[in-house]
Protein 1
Amino acid sequence: MAMNVLSILLLCACMPLAARASSAGPPLAHTGAPGEANCTACHASFPINSGNGSFIIEGPVSFRANESHTITVRLQDPGQSRWGFELTTQGQGLISLLEPGRTQVSTAPNGFQYLRHTSLGTNAGTANGPVSWTFNWTAPNVPSTQVVFWAAGNAANNNLGSNGDYIYTTSLTVPLALDAVNDLTLTMDGTMALLGWSPVATATAYRVERASSMDAAWVSLGQVGSPGFLDLGAGNQALYRVVALR
């Protein structure tokens, strides 16, 4: 009987510790991004995105290589009074702090950065929201065609436990700003295609793409640093476009 009582006492003692640890920042890789869990792993009272609140990421409509942008995460939910979040780009670009007292950034073993709330950043006692967290994001030097910001938010009830909290997930997809080359010329020699175009003053490189028809997907043939490209596998019919990258 003594062993049973001791087990119950230990369980009760651990629960507040877990709650305090979460208030200082959730575990990494709980953003709802592909291959990741979300905050319902611990806060399981309600299904994901089942509350009456809203959770959004506010950012630019497009980006260019090496550009820096201010990103804001915003969470609100009627009846809730403590707030948390975690965000990642899964390795796309660099996250840096603008609110070091309210947010923190950590790097996982796989190299992914995770932006999270601190204890101060939970705004304990702030009823209903909205509560927001703002940070800086710098695009990579050689970006992909888009970046996705993934985030999970916790609209908590401030009871120092994991029950009664509503969990939300959201994402923001931001495309790379592209400048199309408008004076593309094409010279065919058998199955080879020689492309030419005028330089774009602000371009640092050009991406050459090919499609087999108007309805087909565009396939990247590679990047070049100056105008001119020779496609050795053009075939008898192909469409081309060249995108200036900045």
Note: The chain has one helix and 16 strands.
Protein 2
Amino acid sequence: MLLRRIFDDFGLLSSKKLSLVIGNHDIYGGVYLAEDILDFPGRSRKTDFNMRVLQFRDYFPEVFNSTVTVDDDVFPYAKSLDSAVLFGINSIMPYSLIKNPFSTKGKQSTEDMRKLQELMSWELFNEKPRILLLHHHLDSRFFLRLKRNPFLWKEIEWRSLKFKKSKHILSLLEKYNINYILHGHVHESLLYMFKNIQISGAGGSMSGLYPDTLSANIIDIEDGKVTLRIKSYADTFTPPKVSEFSNSSFSDYGFIYNN
């Protein structure tokens, strides 16, 4: 698997260095050719949702070997690192011809919400900054204002990216004082605030608002203070070696949030 090989080549296949959450394309694939538009709903309907989640974990066993879960599930999980606690959820909504025809919407089941709340309530995880990891963004209106697409199919798809009933998970974050979210899904790299939560979206690391720009969303944590920022490498470039990713050839853009 290409992605696993890339992680391995960069020395990232470790639970301390890498944390993953599953995305809609990991479960359902995607639309790559014009003819896929007609085939995609049928393929999504035949997809074994739970099996794909298990396969995702089995592709990266080193990454999940220190996660804490309820009932031995893959998601939701908690992972305690030296400077923070991460909560990872599966935000993908199962395919439905009526409710999720493009297999792009997000949702948390009542059972998964119960398990996430149980993990968040553990005192063991209350001593460090806590960060929620999920694939979907929670503020659909923000992204609808951000980008309009002239092609009808893409416009319909764009409007289908939302996370349903996000207020339930937002109330959970407020209850347990969790003020940071990391997500992907939309192909933009942005820092923004929503409901007093600081959010870093990294879906546009290689393509997005800034053409010909490689970007990295960075989280700095020092003495309990969390700083979110984006670093960019603009214009045409030769990909740097691993050791070069920390040098000054990157330029900062976006906003820096301090708690």
Note: The longest strand covers residues 213-222.
Protein 3
Amino acid sequence: MNRLLALENEVLRRSKKATARAAAQSLRRVVRPFQTATAVWPDASVQSMKTFLVNNATGGNPQNCIDTINEALKILFAPKRIPTGSAVHLTMDALATAGLATSRTDFEFLDAKGKTTTGVVRPDHLGVVLLDELVTLANNAVGWSVFGFSLMDGYHSVLLSLDNSTSTPRVYWSDQWPTKGGFKEYDKAGLNAEVTRLTQGWWDGQPANKKHRTRCTVWRTLP
């Protein structure tokens, strides 16, 4: 009887150990590269990218959003050659696979009742302060960090450039729209408000049975 009990206890012990090992492996799989990525972009690289972005947005014949982002990233990474895709998530996931960006981080909207909505219920506000999240994703690195940014699950492609060289981090929005001028600065409240305004406007205009998922996604590029 004692031998049987001892055998049962040994089986239970091994089972718990295997479960703990599996849980640890699962946790490791979700650890993102940004947790140890502290390198920042040289100011000259960001300024070269900015020059293209401003000229593209204000020159009267801008490229579409993903082509704008792809070209800007090529300039940022120059002379290194980088993979790109036909949508922001394809470009950024390709960069992540190549070790040139972190994996994606998604942020969901909340509805008017404060519950998470994926697009079924009208988005009311983001559940995070996006600028604070960018600083965290940059691991508080001092200098320039550049992020690929997807609105409404890929409906629009943007680059967000974070300048964390002063006590007050600054973020700049880049796409092809002339109203943004290629490199428009936002503060914390302004960035959240603009992402919310755009997402709500697009969501409101879509048929009830064809609503996009309302999450936004960021990837940090790695110098």
Note: Confidence is low (pLDDT under 50) at residues 1-9, 15-36.
Protein 4
Amino acid sequence: MFGLITLLVFPLPTIGWFYFYLEQTFAEIFQFEQFKVYPILVGLIIGSVYAYLASFAMRSEVFDRSSINVEKIVRGMNLKLIDCIFISLCAGIGEELLFRTGIQYYLGPIITSVLFVAIHGYLNPFNWRVSLYGFIVLPLILVISYGFDELGLWFAIAVHAAYDFVLFWIISNSEPNEPVSLNASFGGLEDMEEEQPLDPPQELQDS
């Protein structure tokens, strides 16, 4: 439900303002001319790699895990693979239309990036650990913001969606105190690596 709200409601101020006041077409608002393989592929790579690095930071002893909201929320949702994909796409499209296309148009990339992190609750003057996580995420948001100006909306959506998806999937498939690993992130691989001991040959058992 929250994913649909993000997808359908968050972009409305941007779409309404740009369409009726700035007289842009829907094609211009959604930047369909920028829907190309290169910016999307670059965005997917950046978002995925950064999410994996951020997941390591979330396991650091510096952090009080109970105070990192995203981890608590994701664990409580019991997400399946399709849920991770759907919510990530909704957040990527809805939030980037609101922040990058809309707010950044007037406030610029730096203020918009700080505002984005703050609204998500990761700049907390009363909890330095949460703020530290916010400063870990902030460089990625700045990359999205400046990349939006150079590579367009769909680059920003790709980075955002890839980051959310990888982080959601890692959290959903690992225990709270479990170190981040590829096995924990992509559940099932650990079963392949844990080989059962082979029975000794029959002739050795008889001797």
Note: Residues 182 and 189 are 8 Å apart (CA to CA).
